Every structure is written in structure tokens, then in C-alpha cells.
TrEMBL record, chain A:
It comes from Haloarcula argentinensis. Keywords: Cell membrane, Membrane, Transmembrane, Transmembrane helix, Transport. This is Phosphonate ABC transporter, permease protein PhnE. Belongs to the binding-protein-dependent transport system permease family. Its main location: membrane.
UniProtKB/TrEMBL annotation, chain B:
Pfam families: ABC_tran. Keywords: ATP-binding, Cell membrane, Membrane, Nucleotide-binding, Translocase, Transport. It comes from Haloarcula sebkhae. The gene is phnC. SUPFAM superfamilies: P-loop containing nucleoside triphosphate hydrolases. InterPro entries: AAA+_ATPase, ABC_transporter-like_ATP-bd, ABC_transporter-like_CS, ABC_transpr_PhnC, MetN_ABC_transporter-like, P-loop_NTPase. This is Phosphonates import ATP-binding protein PhnC. GO terms for cellular component: membrane.
């Protein structure tokens, strides 16, 4: 038995129609994009064989080679740490500009927002290319690429933490005759500290992964030997490098997750 | 002595929160400011130390005219005015000790503030105050681990360590239960007498004001409509503050018992 008060549906008629057409439009776009790619299906047919062949040549990984990649691996870690540290130093002032409650004025606020969007919108590989052109190949270009790329993300999340602080203690400390800098040190910094540490470690974790690829454009780290060995078809060495990257990423992820949990 | 002379505040929104308020406070007087919600009580106390910037009129503390000081001189005069807040306004993630010491930041260089390097006198005084407000043993706890009453006592300690010439309190008991409210009110009166400083207290509960204040200022719609000792706060005065002059008797008929109200007051003042 169903009368009108018993029946219930999640969407009314208009919403159902909207959802239907939304889904249809999504499918049309997908098909159009697929056709525009002009995929060569011939490659798809041979792909499984190529894959098996590649694995055959990769296996077993070259264990002796692992000694040679210790240096580049350390360099990768150094790039990620220095890049993150530099990013944080630059992101802190940007965050205070980009937070509506600490920006000194509207133009400064907009400048902060612009720096945040701009540094985020350019990919790390492009930053690396730019710095390799300016400073030559090597770890310095990598550190700069990583740090510039990270400013936006770091500053944005810190700015959000600043905007969410409780104004009460800011007021109380101001009322005691403290200067704005005292207020910053004593009220704002303690309040954003947990967010700050979690943003820094999360970004470092992301930067470890980024540091493994910027070597492809000459910006130092494990990516440099990886590209060389691929060019020389040294597949057993390539597998060794890939395994080492996997290990590095897993370790950094674990460390970063642990630190973030600790400050909560 | 604090002198408030023709103080006005019109917010950017156009709200006229204060319409020319004048009064004086001196000695170790406890002055309670009462009035309905939106009367301008918070605006008034916050205009005294210029957390809210008044739009006209004058505030003077002793010989210093607070209104019209530049930023740096304003900071100096704020050191002489302790403030206590309804929501305590502590830095929740810092310890009780750090919160109390923050009352001395106005006297500390930025570098010393950064290193939390307070002079030994401040630390000694913080410990004394800690026992005065009955918080011994929790000085190293984080503020967010305390109860409401304890937090307000930290807020009071932070104001007292300033060695202020006056205390301003904006509804210091509104977030507390009745018993704790009374504890906080007696603590404030003790401080006024021991340190010989006046206190201005915004307060919602008229009974608390009558019990603890030496003088009551009634604020209604941005104007002072009553200014006198608690004994003078009769039903007519209350009507004026809370009902814009319209009396309970007018509304509820001649038999409505306004006498029971004053009986309550007498009973409470008796204990
Ligand atoms: N920041 C502000 N911007 C605009 N108007 C404000 C602001 N703060 C207060 N007002 C207005 O000023 C008037 C007085 O407010 P105020 O907070 O001083 O009253 P109050 O007596 O403290 O009230 P309550 O008992 O509710 O705390 C009210 O009309 C209020 O709407
Ligand atoms: Mg108020």
C-alpha cells in the first residue's frame, strides 16, 4: 500500500531530469575527448608483449648498481628537505599577506593571493627547467624549483590556519599593552603551530616525490641516473632505481604521517 | 581616577551604541554597569581602552587623555588597565603560567617576548598571584585543560599581574554557573580592596550587581539612565533601565507583585 505520505524519493522530478542530462553530457564529453586523441590501436595490441619483454630485461634488478645510487638518493632527500625549508621561509610572510585578518591592506592581501595562485599553477618540472637555464644543471636548480613550487600550497594552508584563529586572546594580549609583534609571537603563533607542522611535513612528503623526477630535466637527484640508464637501455639498473624510489617514498610518507599525527 | 566624558560610538553600520556617556570612577570602587542586551555595555568598556575606537568624547586615566593618544602611547596606557573577558580569551595551547605572564608583555622587549624571557620579579609575582586566585598546582597545565571557573581566574591573574590602575571586566561571569559566578565576583571585590584599584564590571544579572557593587550604572540604548548606589535601584529605576520607563505595574495591572522582587533583593543582601 502506498499513499502520498508514505512514499519518499531522494530527488524530485526536476532533479532527476537534471541528473540524467548531466550524466549524458559527461558521457558525450568523454567520447569526444577519446576520439580527439586518435589513439593508435596497433600499439595497444602489442602492449602486453612489450610489457613482458621489458620486465624480462629488467629482472633481476642489478644489486651491484645500488651502491652507485646512494649518492643521488641522498641528494634527492637533501633537495626535498632544503626545498621545503626554503619554501616555508618564503611562505610565512606570504601567508600573513594572504590571510584576511593579518594582511596590512587590500593590495597586500591581493599580492599574497596572487603569489599563492601563481606559484601553484606552474608545474615543478617547468620551474626546474627555468632554474636549470638560469643556474645550470644540478641540485641548486632542483632546490629552487621545489621551493618556489611549494610556496603557494604551504602559504595557502598556513593562511587558512591564520584566518581560523580565535581572536579572543589576540584582543586580550592587545588590551595588556602588547605590540602587534608580541601578539603574533604569543597568540597567533601558538595557535597556528599544529597546522604549521602538519603542512610542513605533508609538503615535505610531496616534495620527496617531486625530487625524484626533476632530475629528468637536469635538476639533480635520483632522476638524473634514472634518465641516463633509461637512455642506455640499462633496464636492470632502472629497476634498482625504481625500487629505491619506492622505498624512499614509503619511508617519507610514514615519517610525515607520524609527525602529523603527533602534533594533532 | 577614570573620567569618561560625553563618550559616543557610532559603528560603521550606523548603529549608535553610545550617545554621550559621562561618569567617573575612582578609589577602589566596584562599579557595575547593567542594562539590557544591546544597551552598549560592551561598547562602553571596550571604548575605555580603545579596543573599540570611540567616535567622539573623551576618556582620561589620571592625567592621561586616552582618546587621542598615538599607537605607542596607547600601548603604554593600556598597561595600566587590566581587562577581563566573558570568554576568558586565554591562549588555549599555552600553559597557565605563560598565560598569566602574558599580562607583562607590554613591558617586555620583542626579543625577550620571543624567548619567553620574563624578568625574575614577574615570575615571582606570577607565583604570588597564582596562590591569590587559588590556582597553585596547575601552573604548568595547558589552559584548555582547565574548568571555566579556573580559566576565568587565569584571566583575572593575567590582568592583575599588569599592576593596573583600573580593571575592566566585560561580563566576567556570564559563561559560568551561579556558584562559580559568585566566587569570581568575590575574588574581584577582594582584588579591588587589596590592590586599592577601581573595577568596572559589565553584568547581566542584576542580583549579582546589587550584591557586589558599590555603585550601579544603568545603561539603556546608549545612555546612562541610572547612576547610584545599589540601595537606590528601586523598581522604578529598573523599569527605566530595562523597559524604557514603562513599569511592570502599568503592564500587568495594579495587583502585580513588584514587592516580591524587592523582598528577594533584601533577602539576598542579608546573607
Ligand atoms: N562590531 C559592531 N558593528 C556594528 N554594530 C555593533 C558592533 N558591536 C555592537 N554593535 C551594536 O551596538 C549596540 C550595542 O552593542 P553592545 O555589544 O555594546 O551591547 P551590550 O550591552 O554589550 O549587549 P549584550 O548584553 O548583548 O552583550 C548594539 O545595537 C549592537 O548591535
Ligand atoms: Mg556585551
Amino acid at each position: 500500500m502506498s499513499n502520498s505520505t508514505d512514499s519518499w524519493s531522494r530527488f524530485d522530478r526536476r532533479e532527476r531530469l537534471l541528473r540524467f542530462f548531466g550524466l549524458l553530457a559527461g558521457l558525450v564529453i568523454l567520447v569526444a575527448a577519446w576520439r580527439a586523441m586518435e589513439v593508435n590501436y596497433g600499439y595497444a595490441v602489442t602492449a602486453p608483449r612489450e610489457l613482458a619483454d621489458l620486465f624480462g630485461r629488467m629482472y633481476p634488478p642489478n644489486v651491484g648498481y645500488s651502491r652507485k645510487i646512494v649518492g643521488p638518493l641522498l641528494e634527492t632527500i637533501n633537495i626535498s628537505i632544503l626545498g621545503t625549508a626554503l619554501a616555508i621561509v618564503m611562505a610565512i610572510p606570504v601567508a600573513f599577506l594572504g590571510a584576511s585578518n593579518t594582511a596590512p591592506n587590500k593590495p597586500a592581501y591581493l599580492l599574497g593571493k596572487f603569489i599563492i595562485s601563481f606559484t601553484r599553477s606552474v608545474n615543478v618540472i617547468i620551474w626546474a627547467l627555468i632554474f636549470v637555464v638560469i643556474f645550470g644543471p644540478g641540485a641548486l636548480a632542483g632546490v629552487l624549483a621545489i621551493s618556489i613550487r611549494s610556496i603557494g600550497f604551504t602559504a595557502k594552508l598556513i593562511a587558512e590556519a591564520i584566518e581560523e584563529i580565535d581572536r579572543g586572546s589576540v584582543e586580550a594580549i592587545t588590551a595588556a599593552g602588547a605590540s602587534p609583534v608580541d601578539v603574533l609571537i604569543y597568540s597567533i603563533v601558538p595557535q597556528i603551530k599544529p597546522a604549521f607542522i602538519s603542512v610542513a611535513t605533508l609538503r615535505w612528503d610531496i616534495n620527496v616525490r617531486a625530487s625524484t623526477i626533476i632530475g629528468f630535466v637536469g635538476a639533480g637527484g635520483i632522476g638524473v641516473p634514472l634518465q641516463t640508464e633509461i637512455n642506455y637501455f640499462n633496464w636492470e639498473a632502472v629497476l634498482t632505481i625504481l625500487i629505491s624510489i619506492l622505498g624512499l617514498v614509503l619511508i617519507s610518507e610514514a615519517i610525515s604521517a607520524y609527525l602529523r599525527k603527533k602534533v594533532m | 581616577m577614570l573620567t569618561v566624558d560625553n563618550l559616543e560610538k557610532t559603528y560603521d553600520s550606523g548603529d549608535k551604541a553610545l550617545k554621550g556617556v559621562s561618569f567617573e570612577v575612582s578609589g577602589n570602587e566596584i562599579v557595575a554597569i547593567i542594562g539590557p542586551s544591546g544597551a552598549g555595555k560592551s561598547t562602553l568598556v571596550r571604548s575605555i581602552n580603545r579596543l573599540t575606537e570611540p567616535t567622539a568624547g573623551r576618556v582620561s586615566l589620571d592625567d592621561t587623555e586616552v582618546t587621542g593618544l598615538d599607537k605607542s602611547a596607547l600601548r603604554d596606557v593600556r598597561r595600566d588597565m587590566g581587562m577581563i573577558f566573558q570568554e576568558f580569551n586565554l591562549v588555549e595551547r599555552l600553559t597557565v603560567m605563560e598565560n598569566i605572564l602574558s599580562g607583562r608583555l607590554g613591558y617586555l622587549s620583542t626579543w625577550n617576548a620571543f624567548r619567553r624571557n620574563f624578568p625574575p620579579e614577574d615570575i615571582k609575582r606570577a607565583r604570588e598571584i597564582l596562590s591569590r586566585v587559588n590556582l597553585e598546582g596547575v601552573e604548568n597545565n595547558r589552559a584548555d585543560e582547565l574548568s571555566g571557573g579556573q580559566r576565568q581566574r587565569v584571566g583575572i591573574a593575567r590582568a592583575v599581574i599588569q599592576r593596573p590602575k583600573i580593571l575592566l571586566a566585560d561580563e566576567p561571569t556570564s559563561a559560568l554557573d551561579p556558584d562559580t559566578s559568585r566566587e569570581v565576583m568575590s575574588l574581584l571585590t577582594d582584588i579591588a580592596h587589596e590592590d586599592d584599584i577601581p573595577i568596572i564590571i559589565n553584568i547581566h544579572e542584576v542580583d549579582l550587581a546589587v550584591d557586589y557593587a558599590d555603585r550601579i550604572i544603568g545603561l539603556s540604548d546608549g545612555e546612562i539612565v541610572f547612576n547610584g548606589p545599589p540601595d537606590d535601584l528601586d523598581q522604578a529605576a529598573r523599569d527605566k533601565i530595562y523597559r524604557g520607563g514603562e513599569s511592570i505595574a502599568d503592564r500587568e495591572g495594579p495587583s502585580a507583585g513588584s514587592s516580591t522582587d524587592s523582598d528577594d533583593v533584601i533577602a539576598e543582601r542579608g546573607d
